[in-house]
Each structure stands twice: as structure tokens, then as C-alpha cells.
Amino acid sequence: MQRPRFELPEALVMEILSKLPVKSLTRFNCVCKYWCSSFQTPHFISNNYHNNLQNNNLNLLLSRCDGNTFQPYFSQLSTEKDQNYIVKQNIHLPFFKNDTPSLYGACHGLMCLLDPSKDKAAIWNPSTREFKILPPSSIQRPPYFSPFEETYLTLDDVEFYHAAFGFDSKTDDYKVIRFVSLTFVNSEEEHPHPHSMYQVELYSLRSNSWKEIPYPEYTPTYTTLGNIYVDGICYWKTETGAYLDFRGLILSFDMGNEKFSILPIPEFVGSFPEYYVDLLVFNGSLGAIVYPSERIDTSFDLWVTSEGVWTKQFNIKSISGVVHPLGFGKNGDLFVRDTNNEVLLFDASTQELKELEINTYLDHIWAVITLHAYFESLVHINGVQEVEKHVIRQPTRDASNEY
């Protein structure tokens, strides 16, 4: 006797599939046209992403640069403690070959890469390997008139820095903001004195174009760890006053109304220059790691803000040899860099410092080593697919010396 055929409702099948990793869903695109088209619907993409959030399926990327070849690459780390955060694979990005891009994000599983010395940027989905190279800036660079030299100066250099990447829920649009520094000189002088002007540019994925927005009163500083985007707002640390009258502030930008604002840094951070303050995102909220500038037996305080109220989460006391925090993994584990440029892990549950199986002896450019956390996403950016040959898989050990 033939058994009756049992079929699950399509809605239930889609619900089950939405709980799977992006890598599995990519394979299942070939099962049937219905599945392939369903995986691209906003409803399925949203369900899959929120399932990853709910299950805390955090992914970690270590941004690095080979000190011999100066080639940028990213090491994807395992997030399972029993694997001791080993490197699963190294990823090279061909569209930034011979450049050293900075990585910004993540937002809905997407990241932005920006070359500070060139008008070169891209949006990247590390889960689907899709990337979109952004168009060059169309912003006018006005001539600079020097009242002291009574002449117009020549544009000598353009730099792009302090970028941020986020989502505008009002228009359902992903945006990139970056600060631009323009350097002008008198080309007729043998040793010209440089003059600077500043701009802010905003990119819209929906329009695929850049536009200039008003420059804020304050300029960001380089003290953020990984992502600085929370619920439609981007954050940077800034400052005002002279050395002895220094005052730290937080500069914010609303992706929706495209306006800058200033927030105070509370008194808890201590006085400058005895303490450093690095901004980061911790469990979906804006946080600040505060640590002394004296780099022997460094201790760390983590503060998190909610509706403008800062609360101290925990204190890590006297980690010998650690010089800089990199960011957090799962369950409050803190990644740090020591005096030998090694990446270590402070286990919050055991209060122990662990060496990781990550070879950093080739990463001589220590400033490039940054940690980025993201959740997998199927979000499409109308880009192109990254070539698989640029992914070097290392299931058991690091491959930073195997190029």
C-alpha cells in the first residue's frame, strides 16, 4: 500500500528556511524558481535577518593589512568558544587591490569600504559576497581665494575620512556620509603654505549619487571602534577647547533628517589627557570604553547610554601588556591588542586573558587591525558578485602567511 504524500504548507516551509544561514540559502537557490524568488522578497529577507538577531548569530571580521605586500584583507573569525575564535577564512577584495580601505558599518549586514586617499568607495555584503562600487563624487570643489596672498590657490590634495554608513527608514534608503578635506596651495611658490577647506558628502543608494550637506561646527576624531551606527543615527567623538580646557563631545548625524547634533560626554570619563574614550555599539546601544592613557596594566570601563542616560556595564581591571581595545564578540568577550601587536581575548565569564590562533606577525601596520561585528543578511544592493577565488578558506588555522 502506497503511503500518502505529506506536504508542508509553503508558508511553513518559508518560515523554516528563514532560520537557516545565508550560505545554505544561497545553495538552495537552485532547488526551484519559487524558492529562489522567495528568498529575494523583502518579507523573507527581513525574517531571516531578525532570526539572526534574535539568535545572536554574530559574525566577526578582522580587518588587516599584510606588512610585506601591503595588501588589505579580512579574516573571518569563528564565533564558537570551543574553537577559540580561530580564523575560518581570509577574504581579499579585488576592487580595492593595492589600496588600504577603511571599513565602516555594519547596518543590516551591509558594510561600507572607503579609501581615504582616493575617491573610491563600495558597499559590501560579506554574507552574499555582493558588492557595489559607488560612483565618484559629483560635488564641486570651489576655488580658494587667499586674502593674505591676494590670489586664488590651486587644489593640491583631497582626502576622505570619518565616514559612516546607515539606513534611512523614512525613505527606505542606505546612505554613506564622509568628511572631505581639501588642501590648496599657491602653485607659483617654491614652498607654498597649504590652506585647508572642508566639506561633507552624503551618498544615497536609492539615487546612486552624492550630494553636499552643510559642514557641522565640530570635526570628528579617530576614536571609534567598528560600527558607530544605532537606529538611524551615526556617532563620532569630537572635542572643543584648548589642551588645558579640553572638553569631549559626541557628534551625531540623523540619516533621516540629515542633520548634525551635539551630545555631551558625561563626567564619568575622567579628565583629558589621562583617559581615552572610544565609542562603539554594544548590544544595540551606543557605548563608550574608557581607559587610561598610561598603557601599563590597563583597565577598561564600559558605559552604555539609553535615552540619554549613561550606565556603567562592567569594569575590567589591570590587563597587563594590553594597549588598545578592538571591540566585543559574543557574551561580552572583549578583543584587545597587546604591545606585541597580537590579538587577545578577555573572557568576561572567567575573567581570563586568552591567546588566539591568529598570526599577526605579518600585520606590521597595527593601525589597520580593526574588529567588525555583523549579522548575516540577504539584503541586495544591486551590485555584482565577488569572485570566489578571492576567498581563501582556512578551517583550522590562520593563513596570513599563505598568499
Automatic annotation (TrEMBL):
Pfam families: F-box, FBA_1. Residues 96-380 form the F-box associated beta-propeller type domain. It comes from the Eukaryota. Residues 7-44 form the F-box domain. Gene3D superfamilies: 1.20.1280.50. Coiled coil: none annotated. NCBIfam families: F_box_assoc_1. This is F-box domain-containing protein. It comes from Gossypium anomalum.
